[in-house]
Write a structure and sequence with these properties.
The relative contact order is 0.14. Strands 1-7-6-5-4-2-3 form a 7-stranded mixed β-sheet, with helices on both faces. The protein has 2 domains: about 70 residues; about 260 residues, Aspartate Aminotransferase, domain 2, CATH 3.40.640. It is about 40% helix and about 10% strand. With about 475 residues, it is an alpha/beta fold. It is built from 16 helices and 11 strands. The chain starts with 7 loop residues before the first helix and ends with a helix. It binds pyridoxal-5'-phosphate (PLP). The site of pyridoxal-5'-phosphate (PLP) has 15 residues, from α6.
């Protein structure tokens, strides 16, 4: 027998053990530290081992306890970055996706998976008010942004045959770093990503955008695309999508919406996202605010012919010979990826199990958590809000400081102390150049009582630092 074969009984035994560990882990989440108590040296010492030449069999699983203990848990009091909470039904689907081991390239390789992914894309587009858009799942917002800008480049300044020329891309000064990476990788030139100033709500200034485009045209440069943020990573600001869409139409520019974080909120607050459906392309991460386990990014686009013009480059061995619109469909003609995981199974099962309205309720709860924290900050004289709260990201800081001391340093020390204390986890942002504490609510496990811990934790950390002379 091939030594890699695992008998049916053994598989069932292992699966029962893993599922019992997973169940115990979920049960512990409400009380677990928001950040594991470990260091670089400790994780190395615990997990470094020689490559096993002979199998450990069942004992291989013994180390999973250590892995779980040294993982940053999706605790209800983890408020850092934009880290979704990993919905359990979707996690089960991920196990089955690996068991099925589909390669979601083309219908003939994965009939059910292709059909489900296309359906999930249609469902989400429709629920967002963008009926008719198509697209695909990918690793995350960075990949989706890269693919979207590749489409924009091919549509406005074709590069696939003759190579890239410099082309101007516009995004707000608050836009995500993945956009600078994308323009660099696409050969457009990082210097040609124009960061347009924002207003006092951290939204791109439409007037400044128009002026920048006019200036570039006058200087002989070639504008190709505008990236509007629908939920900036720092403060959750939503650029004025309608106005930007009108400018793009008038100027013949591609409109990409980076909604990796914020766009799922359009399921409950469509009025904040007016103009979204005018986008030529859009990114949204279902592993962020649609609570899916990593990874589950989504790229949507209006006209699949642009995706095909950009990505279709079929080698003979993979050519699809079928003219049937369902059986002849291939994601690799519309995406960077050829081998692709069955990502759609988790979101499909999760939506079927809970229903869209449950996700809407969870997003509403997160918006409410942000409002709760804002109220709590407003009621605490030692704290101040640093930015308006449009979605579920709240930037604030401790503002009492002895004469001559530096507020940025103090808040940075507070953040380190809060994380060390381990009861809540916050991350940071830079707001008008100031160090901000940042809480972002994208976690279906969070309850109002968890949110209520944030302000006392920050005040306690500040007291400890001041008492200890830092
Ligand atoms: C606005 C925005 N765009 C893009 C990204 C990148 O997404 P990913 O981490 O899935 O690549 C993020 C991540 O936080 C984001 O908030």
């Amino acid at each position: 027998m091939n030594p890699l074969n695992v008998s049916e009984e053994e598989f069932r035994r292992l699966a029962a053990r893993v599922s019992s560990m997973a169940g115990d882990y979920y049960a512990r989440l409400p009380d677990v530290r928001a950040y594991p108590r470990t260091s670089g040296a400790q994780t190395r010492e615990a997990l470094d081992e020689p490559l096993p030449l002979e199998g450990l069999h069942g004992r291989a699983l013994d180390a999973l306890g250590k892995v779980m203990a040294m993982s940053r848990a999706p605790s209800p009091r983890f408020f850092g970055y934009v880290l979704g909470s990993g919905e359990p039904v979707a996690a089960l689907a991920d196990l089955l996706a690996s068991v099925l081991n589909q390669n979601v390239t083309a219908w003939r390789s994965a009939p059910a998976a292709i059909t489900i992914e296309r359906q999930v894309v249609r469902w989400i587009a429709q629920a967002l008010g963008c009926e008719g858009m198509s697209g695909s799942l990918c690793g995350g917002g960075s990949s989706a942004n890269l693919m979207a800008l590749a489409m924009a480049r091919e549509a406005r300044l074709p590069a696939n045959e003759r190579g890239a020329q410099p082309g101007m891309v516009y995004a707000s000064s608050e836009a995500h770093m993945s956009l600078a990476k994308a323009v660099a990788l696409l050969g457009l030139g990082r210097r040609n990503l124009r960061l347009v100033p924002v207003d006092e709500h951290f939204r791109m200034s439409a007037a400044a955008l128009e002026a920048a485009i006019a200036e570039d045209r006058a200087a002989g440069r070639a504008p190709i695309a505008v990236v509007a943020s629908a939920g900036t990573v720092s403060t959750g600001a939503i650029d004025p999508l309608e106005q930007i869409g009108a400018i793009c139409r008038a100027q013949g520019l591609w409109l990409h919406v980076d909604g990796a974080y914020g766009v799922p909120a359009a399921l409950v607050a469509a009025e904040k996202f007016r103009g979204l459906s005018a986008a030529d392309s859009m990114s949204l991460d279902l592993h962020k605010w649609l609570y899916q386990p990593m990874d589950c990014g989504m790229l949507l686009f209006k006209d699949p012919s642009h995706a095909r013009a950009t990505f279709s480059h079929t080698g003979e061995y993979a050519r699809v010979l079928d003219a049937d619109p369902v059986e002849g469909f291939a994601f690799f003609e519309e995406s960077l990826e050829l081998s692709r995981r069955f990502r759609a199974l988790k979101i499909w099962l999760s939506l079927r199990y809970h229903g869209l309205n449950a996700f809407r309720a969870a997003i509403r709860a997160d918006l409410e958590h942000a409002r709760q924290l804002v109220e709590s900050i407003r009621g605490t004289p030692q704290l101040e809000l640093l930015a308006p709260v449009e979605l579920s990201a709240v930037c604030f800081r401790y503002r009492e400081c002895s004469a001559g001391a530096d507020l940025d340093e103090l808040n940075s020390a507070i953040l380190r102390r809060v994380i060390d204390n381990g009861r809540v986890y916050l991350s940071n942002a830079s707001v008008h150049g100031h160090f901000a504490l940042r809480a972002c609510f994208v976690n279906h496990r969070t309850q109002p009582a968890d949110v209520a811990q944030i302000v006392p934790e920050v005040l306690e950390a500040a007291r400890e630092i001041v008492a200890g002379g830092r």
